[in-house]
Amino acid sequence: METRELRYFVAVAEELHFGRAAERLRIAQPPLSRAIRQLERRLGVTLFERTSRAVGLTEAGSVLLREGRAALDAVDAADRRTRRAALAATGSPGLVLVTKAGASSELLAKLLDAYAAEPDAVGIDVLLCGPGDQERLLRDGRADVALLHRPFDSTVGLDTEDLSTEGQVVVLPAGHPLTTRPHVRMAEVAALPDLPLPRWPGPDGTSPGGPGPLVHDNTQLLQLIALGRACAVLPEAARVHLRDDLAAVPVLDAPTVTTVIAWPPHSRSLALAGLVRTAGRL
Amino acid sequence: METRELRYFVAVAEELHFGRAAERLRIAQPPLSRAIRQLERRLGVTLFERTSRAVGLTEAGSVLLREGRAALDAVDAADRRTRRAALAATGSPGLVLVTKAGASSELLAKLLDAYAAEPDAVGIDVLLCGPGDQERLLRDGRADVALLHRPFDSTVGLDTEDLSTEGQVVVLPAGHPLTTRPHVRMAEVAALPDLPLPRWPGPDGTSPGGPGPLVHDNTQLLQLIALGRACAVLPEAARVHLRDDLAAVPVLDAPTVTTVIAWPPHSRSLALAGLVRTAGRL
DNA sequence: CCCGGCGATACCCGGCGGGTATCGATCCCC
DNA sequence: GGGGATCGATACCCGCCGGGTATCGCCGGG
After folding, report:
1. Residue with CA nearest C1' of nucleotide D7
2. Which of A84, B186, B208, B280 has the most CB atoms at less than 10 Å from its CB?
3. How far is CA B120 from CA B115, B270, B278, in A?
4. What's the CA B78/C1' C17 distance, rounded, in angstroms?
5. Residues 24-63 (B) near nucleic chain C, CB < 7 A
6. Which stretches of chain A are assigned E, i.e. beta strand?
């Protein structure tokens, strides 16, 4: 199977429309139809249910969509990491670290400082991204290492080392009645009908149904809380940077959050090993 | 990057010889040279140091060898799993389980029995292989799930669940002086100059230097021990199937062995989930 | 019933992957 | 030191396949 065929297949599987997929791929529709048919013949498997009005994935097709994306990511990673390896000699950034914008900044700063003091430290580019993007960036080679937060981020398929754990606090508009309390429970937070918990979009772009407002990043979230339209349960570390129109109260029974450093399992980079070692000593 | 280019590159990187690599790929040498040069131009990276007498990998080349193998495995996995998904409807084996020949047969039998009793059980093919092959089989889609033994097998990049732990015993020829002892220590085992520990070939086909005989499978090993040419430290489970010309003595300070069930991290198969659930209840 | 949307088919062209012949460099050996 | 052997690179040719345009056939909706 060639990566071109896989890319074509993934495009059609995502669009479920040969015309739009062809447009996305910058080719005409007929060659695309032909390529997919050829792929089906070579695999001996029907990938799409086509009527002249609609296209749908078969069972086998959805397997290939999942596996094919992973395979394409692996190929992209091979490409990017090879290019980076060639540049490494010339002194460009040695490692790319990715983390969620606005999380663990404290820990990250400490880590970067400690690592920079190591004798054989290399340059580190820090990449900030939205929630759920990190795993992708690690898998397709755009990043070498990530700071993730269990249990929110999936660490499936990655090597990890725990760095720190912390409790969670509920963030409320300043002056809210609950802010006078020394601590609260999840049930009390959930029982605030005028301050619903927000909904985050999933990695696939879809968002769960529910009452809360849809937010895409931290700033947006804090703004909504300040406006009295939502509340949020966040790791304690969020407290130190709270705007003064917000207040935080510990939540006793919220799951504790573990910050972990994570990297692709087959990494063999000396620089990465050094960074992980430094992180483990923090 | 196309998989064809990757396959070509990996062949040359493994053979370090364009002629032999071309032969392995069933093409002539000139197109291979050209394909590699093209790949290098497209990546903007030198992959090989060539003199007219020898070919060597550059730094970037060895990165691409590692990453490229992983990518090719992922592509192969996509292919195989798609084909299998198409067959699944027609009732062929639902899962392929791989484990080392001659290990955990007790546990495996219990697992297969317990799983077969589940209401929605599917067929399971059992694949036995040499040590170190399992990870490969999981990654390239020839197997869905494996029984591994920590700390011997690497579980890097796989999802796992612990099943059981056991101590280790030293296996000796029947009648050996140590066999009268209730237990021994590693130092005593290592101090048997006439019964050295055997050496296993690594996954890459190379084998470590050292005194012991080179063995490739369990039968061979037990035969060597019976002949008084080696001894071995094995998990306790090995005791139950010992031939009567062999004896086993617990080793107090040998690392305990954990049998784990392992699967590729992005598996989404219902059947696999059922098997893992069953295994967890054993 | 006709039109519009969409995938499939028919057909053509150019580029690229593959082949053979040969070159050029380097090491080995007498 | 020169000749042969080895091995990768170059030159050149051919046929296939990937990509394009034109068009068909099916089907649902107004």
Report:
1. B52
2. A84
3. 9, 10, 12
4. 25
5. 26-28, 30-31, 34-35, 38, 51-53
6. 48-50, 55-57, 95-100, 124-129, 145-150, 159-166, 168-173, 232-235, 246-251, 257-263
Q: Do A181 and A249 contact (CB within 8 A), yes or no?
A: yes
CB atoms within 10 A of CB B53: 5
How would you classify the pairing of strands B95-100 and B145-150? parallel
Q: Give the integer Cα–Cα distance in Å for A130 and A251.
A: 25
Radius of gyration of the CA atoms of chain B, in A: 23
Residue corresponding to tokens 């037990």: B222
Count of helices and strands (H, E) across chain A: 9, 10
The CA-to-CA distance between both ends of chain A, in Å, stands at: 46
Nearest nucleotide from residue B50 CA, by C1' atom = D8
Of B4, B64, B268, the CB nearest to A82: B64
Please state, in angstroms and as integers, the Cα–Cα distance from residue B41 to each residue in A77, A82, A100, B36, B37, following that order: 18, 13, 35, 9, 6
Cα separations (Å) of B24 from A38, B6, B62?
A: 26, 14, 20
Distance measured from the CA of protein residue B55 to the C1' of nucleotide C25, in angstroms? 14
**Would you call B71 and A83 a contact, using CB atoms and an 8 Å cutoff?**
no
For the record, the structure tokens of B205 come out as 């086909």
DSSP state of B142: S
**Using CA atoms, how far apart are residues A4 and A60, in angstroms rounded to an integer?**
19
Q: Check: CB of residue B171 under 8 Å from CB of residue B224.
A: no
Render each residue's pLDDT in chain A as its tens digit; 282 residues.
999 999 999 999 999 999 999 999 999 999 999 999 999 999 989 999 888 778 889 989 999 999 999 999 999 999 999 988 887 666 566 788 998 877 777 888 889 999 988 888 888 888 888 777 888 899 888 999 999 988 888 888 888 999 989 899 998 888 888 888 898 999 888 888 778 888 877 666 666 666 777 777 777 888 888 888 888 888 888 887 788 888 889 999 989 999 999 999 888 788 888 899 999 887
Q: Which residues neighbour strand D (beta carbon < 7 Å)? A: A 4, 26-28, 30-31, 34-35, 38, 51-53; B 17-19, 29-30, 33-34, 36-37, 50, 52-53, 55
Give the distance, in angstroms, between the CA of residue B171 and the centroid of all CA atoms in the same chain: 23
Which bases along strand D come within 7 Å of a protein CB atom? 6-12, 18-23, 25-28
